[in-house]
Design brief:
Elements lengths: L1 H43 L13 H12 L10 E6 L2 H10 L10 E8 L11 H19 L3 E6 L4 H11 L5 E10 L21
């Protein structure tokens, strides 16, 4: 009887270890697949400058905004404001005045602005540029992962572009437009550029 009980205990322990090994192996595989997907998304993202006439859904736009707001921010000040432009007339005005925005065929645009009422003080004020740039990159990567085309068009620090955009969509003085992200369903499929260059980094051991 004791021997039978001992065998049951041994088999139970062996089964438990087998289950743990399988679960751990699956978790490792899932984590590995997730990492591969993230790296692939970064490496294959490329600028899309031509779009179809298909619009984006409200859910897609909200997901992009959530991605932007998930960016790192100095002292968590989150000094950003996102202006979503869907009106075709406004998009055309911006495209005609600022051709670099690539809005001629875009479904919509997100103007990424720095909110000067939420910045750090003194020389740290300009960390808003870092924060809003990180938010913009998050939007670009999220768009690519969703199959949405996007391109980053710089506005700040060009004073003419800043002034022109303010006049077009009445951006208040407390906001500084960093860039315009044109968005839409891709009408082109350019190959991503391989930007790896060992000469562009150094190691200090």
């Amino acid at each position: 009887m004791k021997a039978q009980s001992l065998i049951i205990v041994v088999l139970s322990v062996a089964l438990l270890f087998a289950v743990i090994k399988i679960v751990t192996s699956k978790a490792t595989t899932v984590a590995g697949n997730a990492a591969d997907a993230v790296i692939s998304n970064i490496m294959t993202r490329t600028s899309i400058r031509s779009f179809t006439d298909e619009s984006l859904t409200g859910e897609q736009i909200e997901t992009l905004l959530k991605a932007g707001m998930a960016a790192p921010s100095a002292v968590n000040k989150q000094p950003w404001k996102f202006i979503v432009v869907k009106n075709r007339e406004f998009l055309k005005r911006i495209a005609d005045t600022l051709p670099n925005t690539r809005l001629t065929t875009a479904a919509c645009a997100i103007v990424v602005c720095g909110d000067m009422t939420k910045t750090l003080d003194g020389v740290a004020r300009d960390f808003w540029i870092h924060d809003c740039s990180a938010a913009t990159e998050n939007i670009l990567l999220a768009a690519h992962a969703m199959g949405v085309g996007a391109v980053w068009a710089g506005i700040f620090p060009n004073p003419d572009r800043v002034s022109q955009l303010r006049g077009l969509i009445d951006i208040p003085e407390s906001l500084i437009p960093l860039c315009v992200v044109a968005l839409g369903h891709p009408a082109e499929n350019p190959e991503p550029k391989d930007k790896w260059n060992p000469e562009n980094y150094m190691v200090i051991d």
